[in-house]
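A.,

Following up on our hallway conversation. Structure tokens first:
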């Protein structure tokens, strides 16, 4: 079940021309997504979005104030909706994303669980910023995450890199101590304990900064796949364990086909202690900044 929304200016060019522009300015293009577990059946969640969008403000009044159907029939392609919504993290956008983005695609997919009640809902954003000063739209994912009651969640971001995929992967799998050299504003230090880098079971302690405050996290390597440039780490000690029951970070780097560079994916799967704990969007943004710093060091 997929529900897709497109935000496009009325004077937009043909989609093929826009795609050419996006290719020429790939550094302005990005994709981020998050997945959340819900108790409701996937069919009901899907019909809430496609058939009864006017009921969404009643379900989530803190995030959505109003929804108007301007044109079209429920569930039909071409239907036009107008949303009045708030963005969290002290930022409000007055409903006009096109002031900051040339293209903005929102896709929501609800998938039923196979062997238990409930579903998993994925929110995927694909966008092209007007210029470098426009921030990546992680705030939209915060809005989406706040519209559910489950304590479990998943956030993800893709970062285009100029450095070779293997070298970027090795920064985390073989030489994490160098991360602080690449991104000193975000990471102050890293110590490898009780194991060998790149091996499952090895412990890594990070000293990092979040919202201007020093933090500590100890992670255990859960999985490593050099062929896929993938490493998975689970937080077992530190500040994050005060707010999260589970916190798993997966980094995977995919080389570009037929050219240099690649795409570095940062995925965070988590379970909050309670509803008072914020979703880790700020940490995701910090990770994205760290990825960009590492890329600059490797490709400079």
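Then the amino acids I'd put at each of the 300 positions:
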């Amino acid at each position: 079940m997929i529900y897709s929304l497109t935000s496009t200016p009325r004077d937009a060019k043909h989609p093929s021309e826009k795609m050419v522009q996006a290719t020429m300015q790939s550094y302005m293009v990005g994709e981020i997504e998050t997945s959340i577990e819900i108790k409701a059946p996937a069919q009901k969640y899907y019909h809430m979005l496609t058939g009864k969008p006017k009921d969404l403000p009643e379900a989530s009044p803190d995030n959505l104030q109003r929804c108007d159907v301007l044109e079209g029939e429920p569930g039909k392609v071409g239907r036009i909706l107008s949303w009045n919504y708030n963005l969290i993290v002290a930022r409000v956008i007055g409903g006009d994303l096109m002031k900051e983005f040339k293209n903005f695609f929102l896709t929501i997919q609800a998938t039923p669980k196979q062997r238990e009640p409930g579903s998993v809902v994925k929110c995927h954003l694909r966008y092209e910023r007007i210029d470098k000063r426009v921030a990546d739209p992680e705030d939209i994912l915060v809005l989406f995450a706040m519209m559910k009651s489950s304590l479990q969640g998943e956030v993800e971001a893709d970062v285009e890199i100029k450095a070779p995929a293997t070298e970027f992967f090795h920064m985390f799998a073989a030489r994490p101590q160098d991360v602080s050299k690449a991104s000193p504003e975000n990471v102050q230090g890293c110590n490898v304990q009780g194991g060998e880098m790149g091996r499952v079971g090895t412990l890594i302690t990070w000293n990092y900064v979040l919202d201007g405050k020093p933090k500590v996290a100890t992670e255990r390597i859960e999985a490593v796949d050099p062929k896929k440039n993938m490493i998975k780490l689970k937080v077992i000690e530190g500040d994050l364990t005060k707010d999260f029951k589970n916190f798993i970070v997966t980094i995977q780097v995919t080389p570009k086909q037929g050219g240099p560079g690649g795409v570095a994916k940062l995925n965070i799967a988590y379970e909050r202690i309670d509803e008072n704990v914020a979703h880790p969007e700020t940490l995701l943004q910090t990770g994205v900044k760290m990825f960009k710093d590492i890329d600059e060091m490797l490709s400079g």
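The radius of gyration is 20 Å. Curious whether your intuition agrees with the design.

B.
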